[in-house]
UniProtKB/TrEMBL annotation:
Organism of this sequence: Streptomyces tendae
Entry-linked Gene3D superfamilies: 3.40.1190.20
Key words, A-Z: Kinase, Transferase
UniProt keyword Cell wall biogenesis/degradation, yes or no: no
Name used for this protein in its record: Sugar kinase
Domain of life the protein comes from: Bacteria
Length: 357
């Protein structure tokens, strides 16, 4: 895989820069339909900033680049994300557009009862462009993490994402989480989402995509079919839900792929939110530490398990030594792991983490 490089366009280089829209999230005070919930608690949400926050909590230097309104919600986002230790100096404030917000129900997103109400049309983030963002700061990471949500927000956001995924000498390693959101593209009017996302993914060095979204967006069935459609990235990770994840790593010289599959963990799920972002963050953390691909996948699963065992979108990742011990288990012990709420605080050792259902 291409070495994780350092750019010279900005003086303070960080491990990861994440660019994308963050929104204020309103979480229900009790289960039920949005029409019936009497009160909500405020939190933050955003695929890219989630990755930056979790990586910062794990000790990596991170920067979030985005655009928020010159309003109280924008203040809250900048303060809350900065409180994780994320550098927010590349965030731009827009006096003419609001910060996006959304409301969601407490139910599992996989059920028909789940509701999400977005209020993001015309948001400050939709005005991100090549001209309104600090490209030097955005390119000042060892890794630049992007997602397919940003290009759906506006034609300017699409142009910005195309600029950042263009293959040029000296660019940082570009990580791209496909994050296909059909609803956003349905109202976009500046391109056919599946085609745009496939084109952008081809420009990245590292791509994350779920096999379910690859099937829905591109009609592809199975990791091998996804790799055939995306031969350009040096590392492609296909997430297969409860089955695990498969990585295709093009080795230097031969041009052939090394294919690595790691089964998912057994997890006592509290809330099925935030796992995809946590998986990407765990994989990137292990990538920054130059771990083998199998361990990168295992760290992805472990960080996803941290998110799955708490009610909020963001969860503190396991301590580095704790995660390293679990990632180093043999295949039999890995297959016997069962992780539930509070497991990230259990740092007694790998053997005591091995539990049967």
């Amino acid at each position: 895989m291409t070495a994780i490089g350092r750019t010279s366009t900005a003086p303070d280089v960080v491990d990861v820069v994440a660019l994308g829209e963050s929104m204020v999230t309103f979480l229900p005070s009790r289960p039920g339909r949005l029409a019936d919930v009497p009160a909500f608690e405020r939190a933050i949400g955003g695929a890219e900033s989630n990755v930056a926050c979790v990586l910062a909590a794990a000790g990596h230097s991170t920067r979030w680049a985005g655009r928020v309104g010159a309003d109280g919600f924008g203040d809250h986002l900048v303060d809350a994300i900065g409180a994780y230790g994320v550098d927010v100096r590349a965030v731009r404030r827009d006096p003419a557009r609001p910060t996006g917000i959304y409301f969601r129900t407490a139910g599992d997103r996989a059920t028909d009862a789940h509701e999400v109400a977005y209020y993001r049309a015309g948001s400050a983030a939709s005005a991100m462009s090549v001209d309104t963002m600090d490209l030097a700061a955005i390119r000042s990471g060892r890794v630049l993490h992007l997602s397919g949500i940003t290009p759906a927000l506006s034609a300017d956001c699409l142009d910005l994402t195309r600029e950042l995924t263009a293959r040029r000498p000296g660019r940082p390693l570009v990580s791209f989480d496909v994050n296909h959101r059909p609803g956003l593209w349905r109202d976009a009017g500046h391109g056919h989402g599946p085609e745009v996302l496939l084109d952008l993914a081809r420009g990245a060095d590292l791509v994350f995509v779920g096999d379910d979204e690859a099937r829905d967006a591109w009609g592809l069935g199975g990791p091998e079919a996804v790799r055939a459609a995306l031969p350009e990235p040096e590392l492609l990770v296909v997430k297969q839900g409860a089955s695990g994840a498969t990585a295709f790593h093009r080795t230097t010289g031969s041009g052939a792929d090394e294919v690595t599959s790691v089964p998912a963990l057994t997890v006592d799920v509290v809330a099925a939110v935030g796992a995809g972002d946590a998986f990407a963050a765990g994989f990137l953390s292990a990538t920054l530490r130059e771990k083998p691909v199998r361990e990168r996948l295992r760290h992805g699963h472990l960080w996803a398990a941290a998110a799955l065992t708490v009610p909020a979108d963001l969860a503190a990742p396991p301590a580095r030594g704790h995660a390293d011990r679990l990632a180093a288990l043999d295949d039999t012990a890995w297959g016997r792991l069962r992780l539930g709420p509070g497991w990230t605080q259990d740092v007694r050792g790998a053997d005591e983490e091995v539990r049967t259902p």
